[in-house]
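Lecture notes, continued. The same structure-token format from the folding unit now serves as the input rather than the output. Read the line below as a description of shape only.
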């Protein structure tokens, strides 16, 4: 695991808590456990004001994930949360139309 990238739980703890709960609600127990250890590789970078999506792997933006990819849509109280999962690992967290997330260091 790349130690140069912070754990998402350290940067956005509320997001991880919500993802764990939503994944458990969807019966995605293994992903609910794995999400605790995802790392923040970068922000989406699209500059859309409704997007706060984050990369949790070193996958090149704009490239297809290929074999072993699946999308896991979740049902949050507000906005949209979808996960791109490749071979059982969370590669991307799509975060759309949600209240602005604050980095833990910003609080």
């Amino acid at each position: 695991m790349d130690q140069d990238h912070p754990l998402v739980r350290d940067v956005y703890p509320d997001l991880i808590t919500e993802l764990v709960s939503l994944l458990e609600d969807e019966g995605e127990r293994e992903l609910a456990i794995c999400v605790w250890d995802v790392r923040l590789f970068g922000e989406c970078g699209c500059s859309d004001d409704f997007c706060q999506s984050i990369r949790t792997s070193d996958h090149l933006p704009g490239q297809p994930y290929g074999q072993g990819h699946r999308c896991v849509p979740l049902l949050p109280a507000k906005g949209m949360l979808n996960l791109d999962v490749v071979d059982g690992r969370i590669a991307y967290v799509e975060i759309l139309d949600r209240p602005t997330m604050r980095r833990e260091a910003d609080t």
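Point for the exam: The two ends are 27 Å apart (CA to CA).
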